[in-house]
Amino acid sequence: MPVRYGVVTPNPQYGVETPVVKRLRADARRNRARLLAVAEDIFATRGLTVSTEEIAAAAGVGIGTLFRHFPTKEALLEAVFVERLSALADEANALALAPEPGEVFVAFIRDVLLQARSKSAIADALASAGVDLQHTAADVKAELNSALERLLSNAQRAGAVRDDISIAELLAVLVGASRAVQHLGGNAELEARTITIFLDGLRPPT
Amino acid sequence: MPVRYGVVTPNPQYGVETPVVKRLRADARRNRARLLAVAEDIFATRGLTVSTEEIAAAAGVGIGTLFRHFPTKEALLEAVFVERLSALADEANALALAPEPGEVFVAFIRDVLLQARSKSAIADALASAGVDLQHTAADVKAELNSALERLLSNAQRAGAVRDDISIAELLAVLVGASRAVQHLGGNAELEARTITIFLDGLRPPT
Amino acid sequence: MPVRYGVVTPNPQYGVETPVVKRLRADARRNRARLLAVAEDIFATRGLTVSTEEIAAAAGVGIGTLFRHFPTKEALLEAVFVERLSALADEANALALAPEPGEVFVAFIRDVLLQARSKSAIADALASAGVDLQHTAADVKAELNSALERLLSNAQRAGAVRDDISIAELLAVLVGASRAVQHLGGNAELEARTITIFLDGLRPPT
Amino acid sequence: MPVRYGVVTPNPQYGVETPVVKRLRADARRNRARLLAVAEDIFATRGLTVSTEEIAAAAGVGIGTLFRHFPTKEALLEAVFVERLSALADEANALALAPEPGEVFVAFIRDVLLQARSKSAIADALASAGVDLQHTAADVKAELNSALERLLSNAQRAGAVRDDISIAELLAVLVGASRAVQHLGGNAELEARTITIFLDGLRPPT
DNA sequence: CATGAATGAGATTTCATTCAT
DNA sequence: TATGAATGAAATCTCATTCAT
C-alpha cells in the first residue's frame, strides 16, 4: 500500500474496528451526546436565542465541533427535539405493557408534566420559531404516536378516559398542560391542583 | 376676537388643550398605536425574531420613529404584552357585570382561546425569551387579576366552576389551553373537543 | 393693504420697531445666548460627542430652535469657539491699556489658564475634530491677534518676555498650557508649579 | 521520531508549545497587532469618529475580527492608548541607562514631541471623549511613571532640570507641549522655538 | 419663531457558519 | 476529527437634520 502524502485521511490500514479509530469515534459520540444534553438544558432554561458558541463552550468543545455534528443550529434544535420525543416514546412503550391501563395512563401524564417543570420550553419554542420538523422527525413521531395510541385506547377501554378524543387531542392537552406547569414555576401545590384539572377533563363526562 | 396675522404660536389664551398642540400628539399617538398593532400581529405570526426594521416598515414609519416610541426592542415587546393583558382585563371587567356567571365564565375562556388561535405566541415567546415583565406590567397584571377574580368567584358561587382553585390555577389553565389551541393550528373540530376537555376539567367534580 | 391668507409672514404693517416684534426677537436672542452658554459648558465637560438634542434640552428649548439658530452642529461649535475667542480678545484689549506691561502679560496668561481649568476642551476638541474655522472666525481671530500682539510686544519691550518669539509661539504655548492645566484636573498646587514652568519658559533666557 | 500520518491533532507529547498551536495564534496575534497599528494611525490622523468598519478594512480584516479582538470600540481605543504608553515607557527605560542625564532627558522630551506631531491626538481625544482609562491602564501607567521618575531625578541630580517639580508636573508639561506641537501643524521653525520655551521652563531658574 | 415627532443614513455589535491549522 | 479565528450579513440603535403643526 502506497504511503499517501498530502490529503490527510484516517489510514484504512487499521479498518473501522481498530481501537485507534474506535477511540476517536467514541470521543465523537461522547461529544455529540454532551452537546445534545447541554443544548437541551440551555435551550430550555435560556430560550432559543442562546448562541451556538455558548452551547459549545458549555459542552466543553470548540464551535467547530458543534457544527461538525450538527450542520446548522436548526439541526441541533431538531436533534434535541427528536431526543425528547424518543425518550417519551420509550417511556410510553414501556408503560403500555403494564396492567391497570387507567393508572398507567395517569402515571404517564404526570411523568411528562413533571419533566416539563424543568425541561421543555423546547417544544413551545420550536413551534413558535416556526421550525418545521415534519419530515425529519417523522419516524420518531410515528413511534410516539403508536405508543400513545396504545396507552390511550387501553385507558379508554378500561373506562378511565373519555371516548370522544383521539391522540390529536391528547397531544394538544399534553402540550398545553406542559406549558401550564412551566408557567407555575415549580410551586408544587398549584401544580398538583392544576394537573388535577387536566386529568379530570380527560375523564369520561358524567 | 380679531383674526390674528403674523407669527403663529400656540396662543396661551387657549391653554395646552388647543387643537394645534393636540393634533401633533395625535399623530404621534396614532403612530404608536399602529406600531403596537403591527408588532402584535407580526410577532404573533412570525415569531419574536422579526427585525425591528420590518415592523417599522409594516407600520409605515421610519425605524427612527419606532425607536423614539420604544427605546429598545424589548420595550416594544413589553408594550405589546401589556397591551394584550390590558385588553383581556377590559373584556373580563365588562363580562363581570353580566348575569349568568357560569355562562359568562365559559364565554370568556372561549374568547381568550379564540384569540390565542391567531394571535398569542407572544406570551409564550416572551416567557421563553426570558423577558422579565414582573415589574413593568405590575399594574396591568393587578387589574387583570382582580377582574378574573371577580369572574371566577362569581362562577364558583353559581356552582359552574369547581371550588378548589384560585386565579393562579385558572391563569395556568388559560396559558396552557392557549398553547394547546395554538398547537392545533386552526383545526376547528379538534379545537372544539380540546377546549371541552379544559372546560370539563374546570367544572365541579362529581 | 390686502389681507393675506395662506402664507404666514410677519405683518409688515407693524414694522421692525413695534414692541410685538421686538419682544419676539428678544426671546430669540435670549434663546441663542442660552444655547451658546449651555453648549460651551456641555462641550467642555462632556466632549464634542454630546447630542444636539441634549444641548437643546439643557438650554430648555426644542431641538428645532437649536437648528434654527445654528443650522448645523458644526455651526454651533464654531459659534461657541468664536464666542470664546471674542471674550479673550476683549480681555486682552482691556489689559493692553494698563501700565506695567510685564505684570499685565502674566496676569493675562494666568487668567486664560484659570478659565481653561473649568471650560475649554473645546479648542482641543475642535482641532482634533478637524473643524476648519479659518474663514468663519477670521475677523475674531484678527482682533485677538492684534490684541495679543500689543500685549506681547509691550511685554517684550519691557524686557519681561523673551524677544525670539511671536504671537504664533505665544498662542501655541497658551493652547498647550491650557491643555496641561486641564490635565491636572484642579489640583491647585500642581497647577501653580506647572504654570510657573510655562511663564519661566517665556522669560528672556539668561 | 516517526512521521505521523492520519488524524492531525495537537499531540499532547509536545505540550501547548507545539508549532501547530502557535501558528494559529501567531495569525491572530498578527491581526491584533495590525489592527492596533492601523487604529493608532487612523485615530491620530482622522479623529476618534472614524468607524470601526473603516479601521477593519484598513487592517485588511473583517469587521468581525476587529470585534473578536476588541469587544467594543472603546476597548480598541484603550488598547491603542495602552500601546502608546507602553512604547513611551520602553523608550524611557532604555534612555534611563544612558550617561549624560541632562542630554538624555532633553532627547526624550524632543522625541515625545516629535511623535506628537504625527500621532497623538489620541490622548487628548480620549480625555475629551471622557473615556476612563484609570483602571485599565494602571500597570502601564505605573511602569511609565517609574521610568520617567528615573529620567527626571537623574536629570535633576545632574542639575539639568529644576528641583521644584515632580513627575506630575513633568507629565502635565509633556501633555501640554504635545498639544502645542500638534497645534503648530508641522511648521518646523515655530515648533523648534516653542519647544525651546518648554525646555527653558524646565531648567533650574537662575 | 418654537416645537418635537419623524426620518434614515450610518454606526456599533452579534452570531451562524466556514475553513485553515 | 477538533479547534477557534475569521467572516460578513443582518440586527439593533443613534443622532443630525427636516418639516408639519
Mean pLDDT of chain A: 81
The CATH topology of the largest domain in chain A is: Tetracycline Repressor, domain 2
**Low-confidence spans of chain A:** 1-22, 125-131
Based on the coordinates given, report the CATH architecture of the largest domain in chain A: Orthogonal Bundle
| Largest Cβ-defined interface | A-B, 43 and 43 residues
- Strand segment tally of chain A: 0
Instruction: Tell me the major beta sheet of chain A.
Output: none
Notable traits:
elongated, Arc Repressor Mutant, subunit A, 70% helix, Tetracycline Repressor, domain 2, homotetramer, 2 domains, 0% strand, DNA-binding, mainly alpha, disordered N terminus, 206 residues
Task: Tell me about this structure.
Four copies of one chain form a homotetramer. The first copy, chain A, is mainly alpha-helical. The first copy, chain A, folds into two domains: 12-71, Orthogonal Bundle (Arc Repressor Mutant, subunit A); 73-206, Tetracycline Repressor, domain 2 (Orthogonal Bundle), CATH 1.10.357.10. Chain A has helices spanning 19-46, 52-58, 63-69, 73-96, 101-118, 122-128, 138-157, 167-184, 188-202. In chain A, α5 (101-118) packs across α7 (138-157) and α8 packs antiparallel against α9. The relative contact order of chain A is 0.10. Mean pLDDT of chain A is 81; it is low at 1-22 and 125-131. Chain D binds a DNA duplex (21 and 21 nucleotides) through residues 7-10, 20-21, 23-25, 27-28, 31, 49, 51-53, 61-65, 67-69, 71-73.
